[in-house]
Amino acid sequence: MSADLLRNSFKGAASAAPFFPTLLDQMPNAIVVFEAESQQLVYVNPAAEAALDLSRKSLEGQSVHDLFGDNKALNGMISEVKLGHVLAQRQEMVLHSLPGSIHQDSIPAHIVIAALEASALIMMEWFPIDQQLRSERDERVTQQVEANKQLMRNLAHEIKNPLGGIRGAAQLLEFELPGKELREYTQVIIKESDRLQTLVDRLLAPHRKAHVMESFSVHEALERVRSLVLAEFPKGLRIIRNYDTSLPDVLGDREQLIQAVLNIVHNAAQALSEEIQLGVAQIELKTRIARSVTIAKQRYKLAMDLHVIDNGPGIPEEIAERIFFPLVSGREGGSGLGLTLAQTFVQQHQGFIACDSRPGRTDFHIQIPYRRQEKAS
Question: Is 53 exposed, middle or buried (0-12, 13-18, 19+ CB in 10 A)?
């Protein structure tokens, strides 16, 4: 049967509901429809495109076997439905990624296989079973990080006043000291006071500056980050563009989002020091559209999906759960504020940031919902 005939069969199956494919387009779960005999795809909804990280056009001609390999459990479900033993089957199993893809992982998922009436077509729907668990975990982490940041802000305010007094007293003492060698000690006090003052200012900075909200291209912002990092690391590092150029402009504070992504990419570049020396270091900037997302219990139709993926050694296991906490750093000499500030900036845009890391691949995931421009009063 030709692809056109398959599509016509799909339309015929939906004759009782003319908007059936349109409704499937709106579904938050991934859905594909395929011909029962050849298992060739005839329809892919946007959620499935996002889950497979492939466009509908590139999936044309693919089969279920091409997507998920020789999965015996999945094949058994399809066979039962195809032979008419059952109209639908549900099962939890691990879906493996498209063979050859380096950006997909195996996904524990809940699978539904169902026959479409009056057609030789089968529909497959799936969603990750860890989605709710991940959402709950992210919420707990966000609450804990927010509590830590509030503690650090309060502590910063408490440090600020006596710190100014210590510096002033050191300066007055320096004028009274007779010998130059003794003034070296007061200079240590002054310099360390200045260093702590800078640290305190950085802790308080995100809450002092007002937002400058505007619509802008996230790719223009990423290009600025890319040029800044490559200027500092001109050799041995590749920054790969993997952009979805159809992304609409995002509403937000351009400079804050640039700073958030810059902190992440700069940290990644510093972690890739050995790979840079070998000339194999790479950072991927990947953008996509996410549909029907839930962030902090709020549902959004669309969101900007950004991944910063590097091939470095990964985040040390002992700090992996605390990387967004203030003053936590996996690098000697690091301030431990870069990721904290990045998370603050992202959360101020009603978004979320998460990290998945293992040796050879670290993925920072930022999601920011698309919101309407607020009307001026």
Answer: middle
Both structure tokens of 292: 């029907």
pLDDT by residue (tens digit) across 262-287? 989 998 999 999 999 999 999 999 99
Amino acid at 176: E
By CB atoms closer than 10 A (0-12, 13-18, 19+), residue 239 is: buried
Amino acid (1-letter code) at residue 163: L
307 has pLDDT over 60: yes
Q: Using the Cα atoms of residue 348, residue 351, residue 354 and residue 360 in order, give the sign of their dihedral.
A: negative
Question: For the chain, how far is it from start to end, CA to CA, in angstroms?
Answer: 60
Distances (CA, A) of 227 to 196, 200, 233: 30, 29, 10
Bridging pattern class, strands 361-369 and 298-310: antiparallel
Superfamily of domain 213-369: Histidine kinase-like ATPase, C-terminal domain (3.30.565.10)
Q: What's the sign of the alpha-carbon dihedral 292, 298, 303, 307?
A: negative
* Alpha carbon distance 240, 296 (integer Å): 31
Report which of 215, 304, 208, 319 is spatially closest to residue 261, judged by C-alpha positions.
304
pLDDT given at position 363:
93
DSSP 90-135: EEEEEEPPPTT-SS---EEEEEEEEEPTTSSEEEEEEEETTHHHHH
Question: pTM above 0.70?
Answer: no
Q: Say which residues have a Cβ less than 8 Å from residue 20's Cβ, sequence separation at least 6.
A: 13, 14
- Delimit the domains of the chain by residue range: 3-129, 133-207, 213-369
Q: Report residue 343 as tokens.
A: 């998370």
CA pair distance 138, 140, nearest whole angstrom: 5
Quickly list H helices, the chain. Answer: 3-13, 20-26, 46-52, 56-59, 64-68, 72-82, 131-176, 180-204, 218-232, 254-271, 273-278, 338-347
The fourth-level CATH superfamily of domain 3-129 is PAS domain (3.30.450.20)
CA of 40: how far to CAs of 60, 94, 221, 258, in Å?
8, 21, 40, 43
